[in-house]
Amino acid sequence: MEEIVSLILHGCKLVKNLEETLPNIANQPHVLINSCDDISRVFGNVREKLSTALQEYRHHEPPMEVGGGSVPEWLRGSRSMDMVLHDEQLVLHQQHGSDAIASQELGSGNVGALAPDATPSLQRTRRRKYEEDRRTFRIAAPRMGNTEIPQEDGFTWRKYGQKEILGSRFPRGYYRCTHQKLYNCPAKKQVQRLDNDPYTFEVTYRGDHTCTMSSTAPSMPPQPPPPPPTETLAPPTASQAVVPHRLSMDINRSVGDLYSITQQTGQAYRHQIDIGSGVGPSSSTRYADYLGVTDLVDTMFNSGSSSNNSMELIFSTDEEKKDDGEKTN
DNA sequence: CCGATTTGACCCTG
DNA sequence: CAGGGTCAAATCGG
Question: Whole-angstrom distance between the N-terminal and C-terminal Cα of chain A?
Answer without folding.
Answer: 39
